[in-house]
Structures are given as C-alpha cells and as structure tokens.
Design brief:
alpha/beta; Rossmann fold; nine-stranded mixed β-sheet; 21 helices; 11 strands; 39% helix; Serine_prot/Carboxylest_S33; AB hydrolase-1 domain-containing protein; AB_hydrolase_1
Length: 487
Amino acid sequence: MRLSALLSVVTAVAVAAAETIPAAELVSSKAHIVPGPLRVTELTFRVPLDYDDPEGETITLFGRSVTGYEVPIVPSDDEDEGSMSSLPYMVYLEGGPGFGNREPQNHPLTSTALERGYQVLYLDHRGTGYSTPVSAKMLDQLDGGEDAQVEYLRLMRQDNTVRDCESVRKALTKGMADNQAKWSIFGQSYGGFVSLSYLSFHPEGLREVFLTGGLAPVGKTAEQVYESLYPRVMKRNAAYYKKFPEDVKNVRQVASYIEKQGGSVDLPAGGSLTVPRLMTIGIDFGGAGGFDSVHTTIMNLKMSLDQFGFLSRASLAPMESFTGFDTNIIYAILHEAIYCDGPGDVSGWASDRVARELNLFSWLSSNGTVSSNSSEPLLFAGENIFPFFFDTHPELIPLKGVANKLAEVDDWTHIYDIKQLAKNEVPVYAASYIDDLYVDYEYAKDTAALVKNTKTWETNAYYHSGLRTNTDAVLSALFGLRDDVMD
C-alpha cells in the first residue's frame, strides 16, 4: 500500500528531478603530500543552505581529494600544488547520518580505488565533519528559537546532500564533456541511502554506484524499519549472553547500582548514566568485535564497583563516547527522519513507540525496576533512538524541544523517486549483509529488485562493518560485480 501510494505522487518528485543545480563556488584548494605517498587536496566550497533560495544564506562544504603521488627526481619549480588530477572521480559517501570522513590515508577504500584508476573525493555531508557542522551552540545562534532550528535541521537530509554533490561535481568538472564529467559514488550504510536519492533525482551526474550495507528500505516507514529491526536485536542479545553468560549478573549489578544512586550517575564531561542509557551500548552488536567492546565496557564498570564501591572516572569515560551522539548530533536528532519520504510520513519516535508496543525492554518502562539477583538478562537495544537521549546526553539536552518537534513533522520532502529507480540506467553494485543489524536484509532485497541495473553480492560471513574489517574481500567482490561478464 505504501509503495503504490508513493507511485501515485509524481508531481513534486518530477519537479525535483528536473531542477537545475548551480555549480558550487570553489573557495579554496590546497594540496599536500602524506605518507603513501599520496597527494591530498583539501577543498572548500560554498553552496546554498536552501536550494529553493539559491541567492540566500550559504554554508561551507569540505572535502579531500586523493591521488597517488610519485616523488620526482628533480622537483619542478612551477609545479602547481593546488592543481587537480584529471583522473575520474569516485566520491565516498559516509554512513551515519551525522559523521564526517576520516583522513584519506586512513580510509579502507583509498588504496583499492587508486589502484583501479580513480581519484577519490571524501566529501563531508552538510552539517557534519568540517561542512558547517551542526552543534547545539551553533543552532542556538539562529534567530527564531526552536522553530528556526527545526527548519535548519530539515535541510540536512539526503535530498540536499545529493544537491550538494551535484553542485560540487559541476564545479570540479567544469569544461569537461558530459561523459567525462560524470562520477562514480561509493555509499557505505547511510551513504547508500544518499546514493539511492542521487539515482532518484540526478542520475545524469553518475557513471556507476557502489554500495556496502546501503540498500535502503525504500518504500518502508520508520515504524516498519524498527519492527523489522527488533527481532534481530533480540537474536543478537541471545548470542551475546551465550558468549558472555557472566554478564547476566554483571549488567544487573551495574544497573542496580545506578538505581541505588537515584537512577542516575553523573558523567565526567556532563550528562548522566541511567539504566536505559547503559543498555543502549548494544548498538555495537552490529559490527565485528562489537560483543567484545560491550563486554569490556561492562567489565570496566563492574571492576570499579567491586574494587571501590563506586564508578570511577576511568570506568565512566567510555560511556560518554560510545555512540557519538554528543559530537555528531545529527546521528540522534535526524536518524528517524531519514526514513520519512514525503508529506504524511511522520517519524513519531518510531523506535521508542514500537519497543513499548512490543514490551521488549523492562528498563524502558517508567515503573521498571532492576533486580541484581534475577537470572533473566537485561536486554540491550541496537541502533535505536529514544527520547531519553535528550535528557542524558549533554549536547542533546538543549535540543529536546527541537527533537520533539522534528518527530511531529508531517510535510517532509521526498527522498526517493520510485518510478525513476525502477527505470534506472546507472549500474549499481551492492554488497548486502544477510545478518546486518542496521539495514534489514529482506528490505534490502526488495530495494535491489526495485532498482533496475542492480547487481548484488550477498554474504553472511561479514557484518555491517565489512568494508572496514574485511576490506579486501568486500571490495574484490564489488569490483567483481562490475568486471565479470555473466553472458
């Protein structure tokens, strides 16, 4: 029913697909050599905050372009350190949402892409990294209070990230023939969501698309996304406690201590550790090594209680940076909004609502109590966003009212064009993880079937973090999809 409803909404989407994106203004370009050796060019651009008002307020986008570099025997006196390579671009789109890019020399994609003849552009999404990053203090400086902050944040989703990419592409490929000016994109996780929006609205800019764990649940509501997520979260909890059965008591010991302190323990850098916040570290269950990172965190807390009778600063500090919500607030405040595709689609704190309807977590109930003697494990959440984040994370606390207003927005812009995806002509090569905790495998299969010209490589050997932890295998499979001939 939702898919057919989307198919019937064509006017707004058609207008978006036909829009003209102005070229970004290249503000600065500075090249330097890093170990590898690699030539990294740091780029800043100026683009409209709102593409419906191209002459209005602007924001800065930041990216790093990287190519291989051979040290010349005799350096040239007139070498232009800021010149750009003529190699075809591959643009890497980071996951999240809300995270900027690491340095190119530390990125798993760099060496393989360079070996295959690309230069790679690591472009920070708007609002992240160095691209006019969103923070509570920055939002507080906007005129107009919470309503202005809501309107600003509404411009930070994938549809505008696509416009940014097109604007930058036009700036960097100015003067090239149309075929030469197209570029390849590589979307990891949420970066894949952006890639599918790109295919929806500006396929003319794309030569090919690579996805890792990024086949977004096109046509699914936020509520459907979390209904599909929670059974996988329960399965991962069972696997965790099978590996670390001692943590049934250990987790309850820590939770019981927090309750005895009035339900909250102050964290060193601000905010508070509550039992619900403790149980959200299960977000790591979706990546390789995630069980061990959660166990280590629990063990640190338990050892502090056993040795001192209180939670030391050293034991609490990891809790402050476990999710990145304080340093990357878009990850929390817009997470559910990335599933809202058009008017009438309301997030409504879907993750929290579905969890309560299914009665999954005793700690989520307002009258839930924790017994240190129970033999039943306390269950961890996965990649879920809950309203209590805006009571316990210091950077999110000032944004509680804004978050509630965003959860009620019912006139979101479209982020996908179902009809365009169904007739897509751009080759898509996707790695899909069968046991992915963050992107539902069944929904990913539906999307792969929807998007024409998509080839998929499916595996249950790796988790969502496969690009980072199993780089060679994942990239070999993806480029194999591109290079191999089936007929």
